[in-house]
Write a structure and sequence with these properties.
Blueprint (H helix, E strand, L loop, with lengths): L1 E5 L12 E4 L9 E11 L1 H9 L8 E2 L3 E9 L11 E4 L12 E5 L3 E3 L6 H5 L2 H14 L12 E5 L4 H13 L3 E5 L3 H10 L3 E3 L5 H8 L4 E6 L3 H11 L5 E4 L17 E4 L4 H5 L6 H14 L7 E4 L5 H13 L5 E5 L2
Parallel strand pairs: 9-10, 9-12, 10-11, 12-13, 13-14, 15-16
Antiparallel strand pairs: 1-2, 1-4, 3-5, 3-7, 3-16, 5-6, 6-8
Length: 337
């Protein structure tokens, strides 16, 4: 089968940073399903792993997490899917990735693809949907429901992949006031189109901008990017007894800034359940099926921004370069082989 991989952690403009190669088709065992991959999307975790995790000598690592495709074969213990089912998922950081024609994945972290979306449209969503859902409902403890919620959710980096789905979830499924941040006109417009009540500029002092909106107290903060850069400002903005959730990789944080207000800090990693084989691992299967239903009922929309072409090393290198530049809006997708 065709695949894209790497052997050494190299700058993305290096010839062998990513390369096309042929490898054996994997065989499903246990609760694994084998998926014929039709479309994938790129995420910051792809380039972070490429830059930080060099494979053992002589081995080739296949990257990729988001995928949409068709079940090709199933392991003996599979009960949720059968060959021919259209699926979507975000994979596991412990295994070979989705940048391959056929991919093995545990059925407990796979959902049925939304019927109303193409494979490309669907591939944009699994990782960011799981991350945003778990961050909002599991980590920050927001209860789904459209009853009035006298709090504001501040989303730092609203135009990115996770921010793009988090805005929709918070606006469509809760009564929170949603304030997103963006630093460019096109990204600000994107956030408003997705449902943010207000957008402020995170490249400028944020506290006065929030105050000028006269919104309810900022009791919840989703710090999605550059948390170390913004942390002092967020500690100043967040309401007493508020919550800050984050997903990125700050080198260090002065958590003492949160003590006076009794603010709690919450980490979200959508790979936790699959990495540790938690008892509630199947929650991601149910979550993805719920999101698919919301999409098919017109509540949520895809966050696909660009299809960069077929799944190959050249196009994946372009996707990595765009993500590393930190100025992409929505999701970058590759489709077909």
């Amino acid at each position: 089968m065709k695949a894209v991989g790497y052997k050494k952690s190299l700058p993305i403009d290096a010839a062998d940073a990513l390369f096309d190669f042929e490898t054996d088709k994997p065989e499903p065992r246990g609760r694994d399903i084998r998926v014929a991959v039709k479309a994938i999307s790129a995420n910051p975790v792809d380039y972070k792993v490429r830059k930080r995790a060099e494979p053992p000598a002589g081995e080739t690592k296949i990257l990729g997490f988001d995928a949409a495709g068709i079940v090709d074969a199933v392991g003996p213990d599979v009960s949720l899917f059968k060959p021919g089912d259209e699926v979507w998922y975000a994979g596991s950081i412990q295994r070979q990735g989705t940048n391959s024609e056929f991919h093995l994945v545990d059925e407990r972290i796979v959902g049925h693809k939304p019927k109303t979306l193409s494979f490309a449209q669907a591939a944009a969503l699994p990782l960011t949907s799981i991350t945003a859902w778990e961050l909002l409902f599991d980590r920050l403890g927001v209860a789904p429901g459209k009853s009035v919620d006298p709090r504001t959710l501040l989303i730092i980096g609203g135009a990115g992949g996770v921010g793009s789905i988090l805005i929709q979830l918070a606006r469509r499924l809760t009564g929170l006031t949603v304030v997103a941040t963006a630093s460019r006109p096109e990204s600000s417009k994107w956030c408003l189109e997705l449902g943010a009540h207000h957008v402020i500029d995170h490249s400028k002092p944020m506290k006065d901008q929030v105050a000028a909106l006269k919104v309810p107290p900022v009791a919840l903060v989703a710090a999605l990017t550059n948390t170390d850069q913004h942390f002092a400002a967020l500690a100043d903005i967040v309401a007493p007894q508020g919550k800050i959730g984050l997903i990125d990789d700050p080198a260090s944080l002065n958590v003492n800034l949160l003590k006076g207000k009794a603010v709690s800090l919450h980490w979200e990693s959508m790979f936790t359940r699959s990495s540790f084989q938690t008892d509630d691992m199947i929650a991601q299967h149910k979550l993805l099926d719920d999101v698919a239903s919301l999409i098919d009922n017109g509540v949520l929309r895809t966050t696909l921004d660009k299809v960069l072409g077929k799944i190959n090393a050249a196009n994946l290198k372009q996707a990595h370069a765009l993500l590393e530049g930190g100025r992409s809006t929505g999701k970058l997708v590759l489709e077909g082989w």
